[in-house]
Amino acid sequence: MRPEASVTHLDLDAFFASVEQRDQPSLRGQPVVVGGVGGRGVVSTASYEARKYGVRSAMSTREARSRCPHAAFLNPRFHAYRDTSVKVMEVLRDVSPLVEPLSLDEAFVDLAPAELPSYDDGDVRALAEEVRARVHDVTGGLTASVGIGTSKFIAKVASELDKPDGLVIVTAGSERELLRPMHVTVIPGVGPATSERLRRAGISTVADLEAVSEEELVRLLGKAHGHGLFLLARAQDDRPVVPERETKSVSVEGTYDTDLTDRRLMEGLVSRQAVSVAERLRKSGLSGRTITLKVRLHDFTTLSRSTTLNAPTDKGPEIARLARGLLGDLDLTGGVRLLGVGVSGLADWIQDDLFGDDHDEDDDEPVDELPDLPDQRTWVPGMDVEHDSHGRGWVWGAGRGIVTVRFETAETPPGPVRSLPTDDPSLTPWRPPTT
User: Fold this and answer.
1) N or C terminus: which one in the chain shows less Cβ crowding within 10 Å?
2) End-to-end Cα separation, the chain, in angstroms
3) How far apart are CA 132 and CA 185, in angstroms?
4) Are residues 67 and 158 in the same domain?
């Protein structure tokens, strides 16, 4: 354990929804829900205005609509989230080279290499406030909650204590006092199943857990899990902040509002996903040996099938051919809700590089010959668009041949709403310029 509070956890508040409110002026101060907008959708992030109505992450969109029907329900715009995340991570790396991103909206920072006069509460707080101010500036107004403690565990707990836009420092020696009244689910690894098992044993709070011997926890939960909870209940966590995480796999998947039954169409979807995976591999300078197909059936049964090559590849047609072969072995007559393609067993080389194989990728079956997907010009809520006359905006909704667009950006006041034909040639999807 560290003798001082020198580990920081930064968590951007309601990140996806906050980015939408930043970029859509008319949504500022309004309830916003980001996630799947269809009947089978799931909430990814809800703004704090929507949370007042009980909307939360992982809730079905159907339930979220019943709780907060007046909210704006938007599809995610990952390009905007990634661009914002990059700016935040740059701010953190200016403070310390030891930054461990956990996702687009949160990261650990080890303050040991930072230029701090001391680890006194005042000096640490001043640095944290400076970081939060810089994050607010570079993101165009987003807020972050920050926790600082003697370990990653304590820092993560602290960042949740004063959300949104909070800063909590847990000084060395006060960790166990902080944890004891909290429910056991505050500890990483204590999900619903473990929590229920502990409840049956009369353990509900961290104080209850702290009073149980390691031998008893091992008997209840197994050696590794029991030993880990025994330590964390006593605020003992010596995990380092790891600045780079190795990519384990690259995957793309899609969930469909209507069950897919046309096998040829499914092959087309899988092939396009394979090409997307290959493009991401090449951009990262990676290749992979194991191709995995994920399928969720109409009854929510999830199947996974994989095949492994002798040497890694980053070729889209080859990945697509293998993924279609895996698809062909499955009985899909009841319909499919989700399809996904992934590549694992990653390496930073391919067989061609090592042996000078002159294999021409054009010899593979061209993916473009697969059937076009239906509704390629579908307008979904939250989608960035551009009109020849009205400029840039975003889709509010669409149906019955009409698409409703609010024309505004982060740099404009709340803009006008226009209803246009869905086939209006002047209306096109807007994509950020590539660098």
Assistant:
1) C
2) 44
3) 28
4) yes
Residue 227 is classified by DSSP as: H
C-alpha 323/C-alpha 272 separation (Å) is 11
Whether residue 179 is contained in a domain is answered as: no
Residue 246 CB: number of other CB atoms within 10 A?
6
Q: Give the phi and the psi of residue 296 in degrees, each rounded to 5.
A: -110, 120
In this structure, what DSSP letter does residue 183 have? B
What is the layout of strands, in order, in the sheet containing 72-74?
Answer: 43-46, 32-35, 72-74
Is there a catalytic annotation at residue 106?
yes
Read off the pLDDT of residues 128-187 as tens digits, 9 standing for 90 and up: 999 999 999 999 999 999 999 999 999 999 999 999 999 999 999 999 999 999 999 999
What tokens appear for 237 in the block? 């966590």
How far, in Å, CA of 188 to CA of 231, rounded?
12
* Tokens 């980015």, located at residue: 19
The catalytic residue among 49, 106, 175, 267 is 106
- Is the Cβ–Cβ distance between 341 and 291 less than 8 Å? yes
Q: pLDDT by residue (tens digit) across 5-44? A: 999 999 999 999 999 999 999 999 999 999 888 767 789 8
Which neighbouring-strand residues pair with 260? Answer: 336
- Whole-prediction pTM value? 0.76
d(CA 322, CA 303): 16
State whether 16 and 122 are in the same domain: yes
Residues across the chain = 435
